[in-house]
Amino acid sequence: MISLVGMPGSGKSTVGRHVARQLGLPFVDTDHLIEQRIGCSIRAYFELHGEPAFRDVEAQVIDEATATGESRVIATGGGAVLREANRNALRERTTVMYLRTTPEDLGRRLRHDTHRPLLQGGSDALQRLRQLFQERDPLYRRTAHYVIETQRPSVHTLVNMVLMQIELAGMGRSAGGETPQP
Ligand code: S3P
């Protein structure tokens, strides 16, 4: 099982979906599972119930998504590493890849974002990203088995970097994917 962690906007879902397709594995996005469970957007849930309630649902979903014996690729939310139980579940049950990007690059990518509750607030968003990065970069590093520096590559390059890392880790086939056709 492979999981992707990293800051919001680092490409976890997009890269995860492509990697899963390449390996012939199912793809799951924990934010998507959370929205299915709460029956509304994460942003609305934050406004109604607050961040701690959201983190409780997130922890439950991460536990369930990683507990299955089925091999899959999992994209997590940016705050998934905040709780120790999540970090342990991810690190012990999956091979964790950290897509590492600078707050400045993220700021450019997320300029027009209206979905992420922690990043609303216009010109303060970059400041917020810097603060989140400072808090979380050590947690992502501690959770991850591999760090992939993303700088500003294309999705294609990123996908290949992750696939190469999987191959190097000797998981190309044992990840559960179909054997690539010649
Ligand atoms: C969050 C990131 C979001 C989502 C929620 C909280 C965070 O996921 O889980 O809004 O704390 O950074 P993405 O990383 O997919 O944006």
Q: Label the overall shape.
A: globular
Poorly predicted sequence stretches spanning 5 or more consecutive residues: 174-182
Number of helices: 8
CATH superfamily: P-loop containing nucleotide triphosphate hydrolases
**Mean pLDDT metric:** 89
Written description of the protein model:
The C terminus is likely disordered. It is globular, with a radius of gyration of 16 Å. It has a 5-stranded parallel β-sheet with strand order 2-3-1-4-5, sandwiched between helices. It contains 8 helices and 5 strands, in the order E-H-E-H-H-H-E-H-E-H-H-E-H. The chain has 182 residues and is an alpha/beta fold. It has one domain: P-loop containing nucleotide triphosphate hydrolases (Rossmann fold, 3-Layer(aba) Sandwich), CATH 3.40.50.300. Helix 1 packs across helix 8, helix 2 crosses helix 4 and helix 4 packs parallel to helix 5. The structure holds shikimate-3-phosphate. Shikimate-3-phosphate (S3P) binds next to loops.
Question: What are the salient characteristics of this protein?
Answer:
alpha/beta, 5-stranded parallel sheet, Rossmann fold, binds shikimate-3-phosphate, 182 residues
In brief, what are we looking at here?
With 182 residues, the chain is α/β, with parallel strands linked by helices.
Note the topology:
Elements: E1 2-5, H1 12-23, E2 27-29, H2 30-38, H3 42-49, H4 51-67, E3 73-75, H5 84-93, E4 95-100, H6 103-109, H7 125-143, E5 146-149, H8 155-168
Parallel strand pairs: 1-3, 1-4, 2-3, 4-5
The structure holds shikimate-3-phosphate.
